[in-house]
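Usage

Read records sequentially. Each one opens with the input sequence:
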Amino acid sequence: MDPDPLLSRATRYTTLAGGTEAVAELEIKRSRFLAVVRRAGTEAEARALVDELRRGFHDARHHCSAFVLGPDRDVQRSSDDGEPAGTAGIPMLEALVLRRTGTDPRGADLTDLSDVSAVVVRWFGGTLLGAGGLVRAYSEAVSQALDDARLVSRQRQRLYRLPASHADAGRIENELRAAGTTVLETTYAAAGAEIGLALPDDETAVAAAHSRVAALTSGAGALRPDGVDWVDSPAVPRA
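and closes with the structure output:
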């Protein structure tokens, strides 16, 4: 279940696109490191990735993990899974928490990656890497996986429903999309259609949407509030 958007200090954060994962593999002194990063909205989902890879790669010596959850990134966990303390889980967690995801309006780096779980599976190659070598290997494995990750901006948005006739729904939906409005599902019933919209949690954006709808419907259409929720944008616009 997504966190209550009204209880969060953040209005947006970055995560992996739903249904995707990022993978990287390193070999250092014959030790093999396989990193998998996947979206996770709960601790159960984050830990499920660990269990999945432990079953899938049961011949590996270590299945180290780290995850960051929530719009405010207030849930952070890591595990060394038998590696020397502080040489695996914490470097992996830092690779997630410190990941640059874009820039803010002032040009400063953004580091707001969340709702992600990372696991690095290690097959020992027979040569000890030392604490410094392990830290670099685990951190680099996660960083390389993130280099290929497909990220999205997850924004707190106000949801609305817009009633329309069957004949007008397609046109209105297309014109709203063309204007940059996030259009969700459109439902059809005998009495007519309803277009779902997601608007930034901002009074100016909402006022502009009301005006746009009025113009598209010659004043006949009216947005109906339908709550507040987190909505994925197609791509991170701040990178």
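Summary fields computed downstream for this record:
- The mean pLDDT is 92.
- The two ends are 27 Å apart (CA to CA).
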